[in-house]
Structure formats: structure tokens, C-alpha cells
Specification:
Elements (H helix, E strand, L loop, with lengths): L1 E5 L3 H13 L4 E5 L12 H5 L14 H6 L4 E3 L2 E7 L4 E6 L5 E5 L2 E4 L3 E3 L14 E2 L4 H14 L3 E5 L3 H12 L3 E6 L10 H13 L3 E4 L3 E7 L2 E7 L4 E3 L2 E4 L3 E3 L2 H5 L23 E3 L6 E2 L6 E2 L4 H15 L13 E5 L2 E7 L2 H6 L5 E8 L10 E8 L6 E8 L3 H13 L4 H4 L16 H14 L4 E2 L1 H7 L5 E5 L3 H5 L7 E2 L17 E5 L4 H12 L4 E5 L2 H7 L2
Parallel strand pairs: 1-2, 1-7, 2-3, 7-18, 9-16, 10-11, 10-16, 11-12, 26-30, 27-28, 27-29, 29-30
Antiparallel strand pairs: 4-5, 5-6, 8-17, 13-14, 14-15, 19-20, 21-22, 22-25, 23-24, 24-25
Helix pairs in contact: 1-8
Length: about 550
């Protein structure tokens, strides 16, 4: 059997080495149009910023290992130009040597990846020396050379997603003043707005100028260098380095030309065995569409985790096995300065767009026991199916322990667990690591109380919609000192410890919304009021902290 792999990134490299582990007798070749295979492209921003010090650490599997460990024939600088499905051949161009030749395959694996989206900007042209994307090792080499040789003082980053945020952080670490421009009204658009606001706060602390809801329409060019940019709003941004991080698009030109099916999201259509519409051609990685586990929608994942797993399945099956890729949750994480934000499954916005019944529960907890020094606060937001309590999604923000919590939630969603399962999880505890009731468990308890009907919650967005309604009774149960630092407009202040003796000041017939700092004291207050005959009591989800982060 002859297996040809097109593309040597995460999906292609994983496919090739898994195919070898399944079939020792197969001939396995990788063609890649770049100079490097199996490199950590997710590590490029951290090499740019200096956190990864050695360039060689970017290379996951060296060429010698492909040969010595796996007996895989690797061909960098080789571009596959055409697929002839009838004859089961590919036309290959040797980029350095110029030779064009035809190779045959029994099984073909497409792992063509994705390409950076470069928006149309007046003045942008080939030959400009200080405008970059950041998807390959040559990209980061060129950007590092510019930082070293030109010593730019001001940078413009176009795009506020994963790469844009990580590049922004990297440049600030190199002492460059950064302006970040994002066309949407928030950075990190895949999370709910309050989690984007956590990142905005940290960007501000780092001194980054953030411009939202605007686009770069023109560049000021002097010779072969950009000196500034103009935005659609008319704002001018001086800059001596430009990083374009406006998103990625699947590279599907080759499969399109070969007549393979392309899906609604723009990626190659594959089944759960990573087969394309041609049974002898498999595909994996950024170029394919995945099934979103919770909705069944076909989506682009564009993440290294799914790409590696898809490549493993494609390689195994191309070599004769029968593996399945079940789908993706979109679990992701990003760090900016001291703040980390992560997401898995459906956000509140995702659930709304999918018309999926849900409620959300915001929670705040320390990343480890308060008695042990150094604890910091985590913001956890769960998306939950109302009738069953099944966990649909989670978002976490904080300075420490975010990765641990999001992985627990991702595992819970994958396993189909409910919030009743979350509140029963038996997780490791010692004061320096977590709390006896860990943040995941506490979030599960809060959401389970809602499903049981012990408490009704209202989100900050929901409260804003009814604020000022004469039928609303808003009660702040924080301490006097906390209330002096700020209250929600229209609130009555009754500290929790005074609530029972001051019930006569409230009208039990009105809709009553209670809040504290994080939601725990207001939950207690809501139980008091409900059991004292108040007809409609709501606890503000996430309380004061979610209110201020959302405003």
C-alpha cells in the first residue's frame, strides 16, 4: 500500500506516523510546500515574545525521526498541484528544483491546513518589509528580524482573536507599544462579552490601545515600509510594524479542483472516519469540517487538538484500521498578561444562535483555599440545559487555575454529565491546590439549585432590561462599606445580617432581585425571602462582579 500525505502540519504528521504504527509494510510519503514539518505553530507568538528562547524547540518531530523512527519519506519544498482521482495520482512540483512529476497513491490524505486571511487594504502590496502574518516559521523569522534590525517602537495588530491577542502580548513583552484593531465590538469574539471584557481590562493594564468596531482601510507607505494606517472611522494610527491576524481560512483549493465535496462552513466534507466524498481520499486538520458535538452543526475547528486527533484517525483508517472521530467541543484557551480566558462547548451566545434551550449561571470562587497565600478569583459561567441539568458549556477567566477547570468541564460535557454530577465530583484537595468544595463543584451546586427550583436567577443583561420598572424591587445585601463603593441604580441597601428584621421595608408582592458581590450572600437572601412569602425572588447571577464586568 502506498499512502501519500499532503501537508506536514499537525494533521498530516499525525496521520503519517499513525499510519505507520498500523501498517509496517506501507510506503508512506509526506509532501509539504514549506521548509518545515511538524512544528509548533501555536508556539510562534511565544517565540516572538521571547518566552520560547530556542528556535529549535519549535520543531516537534525532526526530519531524522520521521526517517529513523517511522520510516516515513519526507519531502519539504514540494507542492502538490493536482489530484487525478481516476488514475489515483498527484502532480507534484519541486519548488526549489523546478521539476514537476507525477506520483501514485493507493490512499491519499489531505492535510492542507489553513491560510491567513489578509483583508483588502489600500497600500498593502508585495515587497513591504514590515507587514507580517504569523503562521509559519519563516513568518516568525521575518518578524523577529524586523524587531531586531529596525527596533520598531509602535506596532499595529489587525485582529483580536487568538493570534492577535497572543501577538499583542508578545510585542508588549518586547517593549513595543501596540494598537490593536478589531472589526467586531469585542476581542476574542468566540466568548461571551463579559469574558472579552476581562481581557480588555488586562490589555489596558499592559498599555495596549484597543480600537473596537473599526477596520484598517489604508496604509501609509514610505518606500518599502509602512509608517502608519488609516481606519474606516478616519482614525490614524502611527506604526512601524504591522501584524495581520484577521483570522484563518481553510486551504481547500486542491480538493475543490479535484471535485471533492466542500461543506457549508467552507471545509472539506468528511465522515466520522475522516473519509472525503472519495473513499480513497482522507482529510484532517484545519481544512476539514468537524461535527460540533452539542448541536450537530458542521464547523471549522482550526485548533491543534482536533487536528491531531483527526490526523490520527485518518492515518489509521488509510492504513487499514477502523477508527472514529466523534466531533469537537471547541475547547480553547488564551492568555494575555496575567489574565487567562478559556471556553468549552456552548457559550450563552452560541446557545441562543442554535435556538437551544438553556440558562446560564455565573459564579466566582478562589482558585485555591483562601487560608493558603496567593489565591486569586476565578469567574466561571456555565451554560445548562434547563430540564435535564445537562452541562452544555463553560467559560472560565482568572489569573491561575483556568486550564485545570476548563478541562474538567470539557470532560464533563463530553461524558454527558449534568450539573448534579458536577456537584458530586470527587476532586483533589489540599489548600495550595483547590478548596474542599472546588470551583467546579461550587459552580455545579449553584446551577443544580436553579434546576431544582431552589432559586431563580436573572442575568445582568436581563436585569438591565427591567431596570427602572416600577414593579421591580432591587435589594443590595452587601455590607455598608461595599455599598459605599458603588451600587446598581435604584437598589435598596439592606445588609444580609439585617435582612430578617427589616423585611417590613420590602413589598413581598413585587418582583425582587437580590445581589451581593459574587452571588453567595444573595442566594442566602433569596432563600430567606422565598420562604418568608415573597412571590417572585431572583438572584442576580454573578452579582455585582458580573454587573460591573458587563458594563
Amino acid at each position: 500500500m502506498r499512502i501519500v500525505v499532503v501537508g506536514g502540519g499537525a494533521g498530516g504528521a499525525s496521520a503519517a506516523v499513525k499510519a505507520r504504527r498500523i501498517n509496517e509494510d506501507a510506503e508512506i510519503l509526506i509532501y509539504d510546500k514549506g521548509p518545515h514539518l511538524s512544528y509548533a505553530n501555536c508556539g510562534l507568538p511565544f517565540f516572538l515574545g521571547g518566552e520560547i528562547e530556542k528556535r529549535e524547540d519549535l520543531f516537534v518531530v525532526p526530519f531524522s525521526r520521521f526517517d529513523g523512527w517511522f520510516n516515513v519519506d519526507v519531502h519539504p519544498w514540494h507542492s502538490v498541484e493536482e489530484i487525478n482521482r481516476k488514475n489515483k495520482t498527484v502532480t507534484v512540483r519541486d519548488i526549489q528544483g523546478g521539476k514537476v512529476f507525477v506520483d501514485s497513491y493507493d490512499r491519499l490524505i489531505l492535510a492542507t491546513g489553513s491560510q491567513p486571511f489578509v483583508p483588502s487594504i489600500e497600500g498593502l502590496r508585495d515587497g513591504i518589509r514590515n507587514v507580517f502574518t504569523l503562521t509559519t516559521v519563516p513568518d516568525v523569522d521575518a518578524a523577529c528580524a524586523c524587531l531586531r534590525d529596525d527596533e520598531p517602537q509602535q506596532a499595529l495588530v489587525i485582529g483580536g482573536g487568538f493570534i492577535g491577542l497572543e501577538v499583542t502580548e508578545a510585542l508588549t513583552m518586547r517593549g513595543v507599544a501596540v494598537t490593536l484593531v478589531e472589526r467586531l465590538p469585542q476581542v476574542m469574539p468566540i466568548v461571551d462579552s463579559e469574558f472579552s471584557n476581562h481581557l480588555l481590562g488586562e490589555l489596558g493594564r499592559l498599555g495596549v490601545r484597543v480600537i473596537l468596531g473599526d477596520t484598517v482601510v489604508g496604509l501609509d507607505v514610505d518606500g518599502d515600509r509602512v509608517t502608519g494606517a488609516v481606519l474606516a472611522s478616519g482614525t490614524r494610527v502611527p506604526c512601524s510594524l504591522v501584524m495581520i491576524a484577521a483570522g484563518m481560512r481553510p486551504d481547500v483549493s486542491l480538493p475543490v479542483a479535484a471535485g471533492l465535496d466542500i461543506g457549508v462552513a467552507g471545509g472539506i466534507v468528511v465522515n466520522d472516519r475522516m473519509q472525503t466524498s472519495d473513499a480513497d481520499i482522507y482529510a484532517a486538520g484545519d481544512c476539514v469540517e468537524s461535527e460540533e458535538l452539542l448541536t450537530g452543526r458542521r464547523v471549522l475547528s482550526l485548533l491543534a487538538g482536533p487536528a491531531n486527533k483527526q490526523g490520527r484517525v485518518a492515518g489509521a483508517n488509510a492504513a487499514g484500521a477502523d477508527y472514529v472521530f466523534r466531533g469537537a467541543l471547541g475547547t480553547c484557551i488564551v492568555r494575555v498578561g496575567r489574565m487567562t480566558v478559556a471556553k468549552t462547548g456552548l457559550s450563552e451566545r452560541d446557545a441562543e444562535r442554535a435556538n437551544k434551550a438553556h440558562f446560564v449561571s455565573d459564579n466566582y470562587a478562589r482558585d485555591h483555599a483562601g487560608c493558603y497565600p496567593g489565591s486569586t478569583e476565578l469567574h466561571i459561567k456555565l451554560t445548562v440545559e434547563p430540564d435535564t441539568g445537562r452541562l452544555l458549556g463553560a467559560q472560565v477567566a482568572g489569573e491561575s487555575g483556568v486550564d485545570k477547570r476548563i478541562d474538567v468541564f470539557a470532560t464533563a460535557i463530553y461524558a454527558g454529565l449534568t450539573v448534579f454530577d458536577l456537584e458530586q465530583l470527587d476532586l483533589a484537595y489540599a489548600p495550595q491546590f483547590s478548596s474542599a468544595k472546588g470551583p467546579e463543584v461550587m459552580a455545579g451546586m449553584a446551577a443544580a439549585n436553579i434546576v431544582r427550583g431552589e432559586v431563580r436567577n436573572i442575568t445582568s443583561c436581563g436585569l438591565r432590561q427591567i431596570l427602572g420598572d416600577p414593579g421591580l424591587q432591587l435589594v443590595d445585601v452587601r455590607t455598608d462599606e461595599e455599598a459605599r463603593r458603588g451600587m446598581i441604580p435604584g437598589a435598596v441597601h439592606i445588609p444580609l445580617h439585617e435582612l430578617r428584621r427589616r423585611l417590613s421595608e420590602l413589598d413581598p408582592a413585587r418582583t425582587t432581585v437580590v445581589y451581593c458581590r459574587t452571588g453567595i450572600r444573595s442566594y442566602i437572601a433569596s432563600r430567606i425571602l422565598t420562604q418568608r412569602g415573597f412571590a417572585d425572588v431572583r438572584n442576580l447571577s454573578g452579582a455585582w462582579l458580573s454587573w460591573i464586568i458587563g458594563n
